[in-house]
Amino acid sequence: MLENGWFREENESWNGQSLSLQVDKVLYVGKTMFQDVLVFRSTNYGNVLVLDGVIQATERDEFAYQEMICHLPLMSHPNPKRVLVVGGGDGGCLREVVKHAGVETIEMVEIDQTVVDLAKRFLPNMACAFDNPRVTLHIADGFEFLANNQSKYDVIISDTSDPEGPAEKLFEESYFQLLSDALAPGGIVAMQASENVWLKLDILKSLQERCKNVFPTVNYATVCVPTYTSGQLGMMICAKDPQTNLQAPAAKKHIPEDVRYYNEGIHRASFVLPTFAKKYINN
């Protein structure tokens, strides 16, 4: 909501609080076939992309989320060659994946071409890898794409919207099964888990249980991002192999030099939960 020079994000899942950013200039307002879109320049966080009233990325802090959802699975896999990004039309995930020289092919399936176009226009530091020769962009429905590409990918990064409205199906067991089927043996998937330990722990616990019905190895990781819900965002990292250790980089892996948030210590620490959350989620 834009009002009196401020953008305010409100959500039924976090009643009693909201997130507000001061607006310097509105850059774009529109509606695609799939969602409402707003782009504005903020006074403190640079350009901001908003979809259906929810902040998706700001220039100031987006790298924290993008690095963690990409480098946690890529660094946990000993030798990822084929990577798929589901969603992520802002290009941030692609930017991080191309930093791994050993990755040979990177495919993205994004349903909304407008998001890609607006990211290239207003978030150029994020949308800088679409022209990389290893990248192939598919404008298509992620469900259909996954169903037609089985046992193919070493790492899948599911960078989707929050579990509301049509996007709710992206947090159901049937979607997780599609992700598992699209992975090659030893594959790893990282998915945006939306809920954090301060809000809706019951939903987070349910999400983890649904993942465990499909994957033998499931871990919940967190990342600090000021403009996301309560300043913390969660990710489910899942592996097809029960022996995969997701909570530390694989042996002899080299961290990309141009990262700003991710490091080996952050990798390990992201899986450490506060006592109250650990007790609730794992009981």
UniProtKB/TrEMBL annotation:
Presence of the UniProt keyword Transferase in the record: yes
Active-site positions on this chain: 159 (proton acceptor)
CDD domains from the UniProt entry: AdoMet_MTases (cd02440)
Domain PABS: start-end pairs: 4-240
Gene Ontology CC annotations of this record: cytosol
Example of a GO biological process term: spermidine biosynthetic process
Keywords carried by this UniProt record: Polyamine biosynthesis, Transferase
PROSITE patterns linked to this entry: PABS_1, PABS_2
GO molecular function annotation: spermidine synthase activity
Source organism superkingdom: Eukaryota
InterPro entries given in the database record: PABS (IPR030374), PABS_CS (IPR030373), SAM-dependent_MTases_sf (IPR029063), Spermi_synthase (IPR001045), Spermidine_synt_N (IPR035246), Spermidine_synt_N_sf (IPR037163)
NCBIfam families assigned: MFS_SpdSyn, PRK00811.1, speE
Recorded family membership: Belongs to the spermidine/spermine synthase family.
Protein name as it appears in the record: Spermidine synthase
